[in-house]
Amino acid sequence: MNLRQLEIFYAVMKSGTVSGAAKQLHVSQPNVTRVLSHTEQQLGFALFERVKGRLVPTKEAHLLLPEAEKIYQQLGQFRNLTNRIKAGEKHLTIGAPPILSAAMLSPLIAQLCKSGDYNIEISTGNQDELCDALLKNQIDLAICFGQDAPPSLVQKTLLTSEMCVITPPQDSSDEVICLKQLLSSDKTLIGLDSRDPLGAQLHQAIHALEPEYHPSISVRNYSSAAELVVHEVGCAIVDPWTAHQYKDRVHRARLTPTIDITVSLLYAEHNPLSISARNFVQQLEASL
């Protein structure tokens, strides 16, 4: 007895009539009769007796019913599961550096949470921590700076932008500031840790001009660099989202030559994006 035959047998047993089973299953009565007859032929015994136009279950049918009911319930659970998968469980754990979590993800997450469709967890960390979390299946996807990722992770570019200069407001009003000018100035240029994707790019750009240059102050966190600028320790070269976050407290200028930066989507190759995760990424791309 295949699943279709089981479904029709169970429907007839529960409804007591062919017409009732056909209505329940949204099929025609002849279809139910045909499948039922074919099932009895395959089994080699009758499931129903036709008495005065009514179907009366045989003893064999009553013996089969408890097991059929178990299978039918499991089939229902399986269908519910496939429906949930199709719709998406809509539970996501997303990793991102603090600035991207706050500036890029927060508006979209707020919108999604208002609709009540998603249950979202945010895990913040640096690039190495997020890559490690992806490989351990602790997060579903990550939004990171840079294009470099371990071979076991899939990388997709979401957008590109440029690093910019932030200075104390009284130190400069220039719209464009040259990197060489910053390196030769008596003002402190706050460095970024070279283990960081943006820090590595900044380090490379600086050493292309001044191979022996070493910053007197270096930080791993972009907001820490901005806070030092606010406190007039010096100037810094940061991502545009950090600069925007501090726009009322620092002066922002374009950097020349430009240092291009990338924001990427990362996920584990062995753990492809779920339907919900793909929907989230599509909405994120549309919002950028």
From TrEMBL:
Domain HTH lysR-type span(s) in chain numbering: 1-58
Annotated keywords: DNA-binding, Transcription, Transcription regulation
Keyword DNA-binding: yes
Gene Ontology molecular function terms on file: DNA-binding transcription factor activity; sequence-specific DNA binding
Signal peptide: none
Domain of life: Bacteria
UniProt xrefs under PROSITE patterns: HTH_LYSR (PS50931)
InterPro entries: LysR_HTH_N, LysR_subst-bd, WH-like_DNA-bd_sf, WH_DNA-bd_sf
GO biological process: lysine biosynthetic process via diaminopimelate; positive regulation of gene expression
A Pfam entry, by short name: LysR_substrate
Family: Belongs to the LysR transcriptional regulatory family.
Protein name as it appears in the record: LysR family transcriptional regulator
